Amino acid sequence: MNATSGKGWRNDADAKVTGRAKFTDDLKFARILHAAPAYSDFVHARILRVVTEAAEKAAGVVRVLTAGDVPGANRFGQIIRDYRIFADDKIRYHGDVVAMVVAETRDLAIAAASLVRVEAEPLPAVLDAEEALRPGAVLVHEGHGSNLVNTHRIRRGDVREGFRQADFVLEEEFRTQSVEHAYMEPEVAVGVPRSDGVIEVYGSMQHPFSTRRFVSACLGVPLSGVEVVGTPMGGGFGGKDDTAAIVCARAALAARILGRPVKMMYRRDWSIRESYKRHPYRVRYKMGVTKDGRITAVRCRILADGGAYCSVTPWVTWRSTVQCCGPYVVENVHCDTLGVYTNNVVAGAMRGFGSPQMNFVVEQMVEIAAAKVGISGVEFRRRNMVRQGSVTITGQKLDGHKVAMGEVLDAVLKETGYEAKLAKCSHGASDSEECYGIGLAMSYRGVSLGAEGIDSCTAIINVQADGSILLEVGVHENGQGAESAMSLIAARELGVSLGRIRYRRASTSTVPDGGTTVASRGTIMGGGAVTLAARELKQKIAEAVCGRLRCRAKAVRIAGDEVLGRAGGERIPFDEAIRLMFQTQRVPYACGVFKGPPVSWDERTGQGDAYFTWVYGCQAVELTVNKRSGRVKLLGAVAAHDVGRAVNPEMVRGQFFGGMAMATGYALHEEIRSKDGRITNLNLNSYRIPRATDLPEMTAIIVENPDPLSPSGAKAIGEPTNEILAPAIANAIFHATGRRELALPIKMSALPDEPPDDECRL
């Protein structure tokens, strides 16, 4: 790590490597109490009474809290306020918490929590999303009138005419599974009552500000009565927003009532049982194509199982809708997307946010269509993919940035030697026990929140009297290196050495709300705010020292820790320029606010400029499938993604590798399994995440096309790398075996002696 050049630099690397970094569970407070959640064994039931007497009498127990102890709102949520801090009227899924036991030690709290009982009237559980929509289905939330959470649609062109123009009409049904985030650090929160009446909250969460909203609503206090302090996180991947905020609210509630610090550290089985998952999808997809390989129409129906509470299902499914045709130009589209309540575990945000499911569908459909037409999948993609000036299925013209779809595709084809290797694929016929295949997939992705919500971020640069610099940004560090990226952007834009920058971890009381660290928005939004703050600060410095440099303010520039005037003219050290500012009572302080450029959306037609910019990616994978066992062995994977500008290239590569590793699990291993609404694999010994030996050699190709709409030039990479390896693996398996796998995770069995007739042979 080079703190001078910034190459591969992380501001928190030393603390984390040496174990000095303080995660939430490492925090110590005097007289701290410990809390544990209490569950019931019901999946769906009307609560008659929560019986807490035995738990209250248990050794070391200080208090048992239930819904009746919540002074504010027991129900909250980011979109629909249906989440329960504690289950009150009903149990809606097996992960509902009915009470919280607070005791002198964690072990005593856990022991007492097992004594809490629930007297309830069992209700039939609805566990299938399709069943949940049928007339007369059991309602998860009676007041809603149905189990429909939300709908989205795309209406473009005339799909009937589009299918009439087609020479071939293809139709398939795909399914994806429920997936656990499997972050290393489970949910943990500490609530601390302060002498000024404020409740201080520390926790492993992705968005301190949404956590503050949950906590203040629960406590019934103004937002100013809660301060949420960011702490290092042991992973999130989208999974520490709603659930983590509720855990924080419970800890804060106990601290407020008892007047003592309270810590709540989750066990792994609690975390998997209660936390939201990636949505399982069921997709019916119909595509019309001409003999020359042009897509004429798409009709699709997307059904998403949202589980027992809304969470962010409407936002996740909206992205799926916007990107339901992948990076392809389709004139005629009819898409209906439905988010549905069931009594299954809640579904919410996970890395990719609705894109991995649809890319698994689309990138196989284009290969099926290509084979039907009789051309290669690569050629089919070239004939249909978006280019500069293309119009998306929502009517948005792609002209405000470099459309790099062809660039990333060409990079992967060249690196892998794809076409030559494709000709060597087994297609189920191999003299050895191993069938070889190669496959690829590509995508485009709308950057940041788009029309999903308000999109802005704030950064504060505060230069000290000695020339050192404090930087605060309204972007939370999830462990991905956001603090380092913000520091690098500030140093580059200011023209000073990286060693001057001290990143100050913000709290909700020190910087305005910069939005949650989701949607791959951290670098583009936070970096944009930092860039604008740096430009404002440079202007202030220029106005303060231009007289000393004997030039106009607009001629002043900063480089190499020096403030310079006209070329060949005077220059002064940066430290001296700052001293001069303080002497003349000019404050070297700047606040930058980056607001995402305007977007638009018509919910009735699904038309509009959904995102202010887009990123483009392509991935390919080589593998073998054992004919006798069906075991899939990944040999190598290559990814090319346009990131705008790579602020910290080594960390960007880390995002490539981490995203592809997660996608390997999504494709081949991971699945939340349930029986009668109860998750059966509640720990990592039974929930199968990829091991190092499961992963292929990975190559990362960083493509840079700085975006004119991004003040820093950077765009996004966190989620794009996670969303297309699964379909690439599915396509490679097909080329190896002749089998088309339409459900995740892919579970291969022994291959027949004779290869099947398949679309490759059409």
Number of helices: 18
Would you identify the CATH architecture of the largest domain?
A: 2-Layer Sandwich
Distance between the termini: 53 Å
How is the main sheet built? 7 strands, mixed
Strand content: 15-25%
CATH-wise, what's the superfamily of the largest domain?
A: Aldehyde oxidase/xanthine dehydrogenase, molybdopterin binding domain
Shape verdict: globular
Q: What does the average pLDDT come to? A: 95
Side by side, the strands of the main sheet go: 3-7-1-14-11-12-13
Structural class from helices and strands?
alpha+beta
Short description:
This protein is α+β, with helices and mostly antiparallel strands. The longest helix is centred in the C-terminal third of the chain and has 28 residues, at 522-549.
Please characterize this protein's 3D structure.
The chain has 762 residues and is of the alpha+beta class. It has three domains: 25-123 and 187-265, Aldehyde oxidase/xanthine dehydrogenase, a/b hammerhead (Aldehyde Oxidoreductase, domain 3), CATH 3.90.1170.50; 281-450 and 603-761, Aldehyde oxidase/xanthine dehydrogenase, molybdopterin binding domain (Aldehyde Oxidoreductase, domain 4, 2-Layer Sandwich), CATH 3.30.365.10; 456-595, Aldehyde Oxidoreductase, domain 4, CATH 3.30.365.10. It has 18 helices and 30 strands. Strands 3-7-1-14-11-12-13 form a seven-stranded mixed beta sheet. Mean pLDDT is 95; it is low at 1-5 and 758-762.
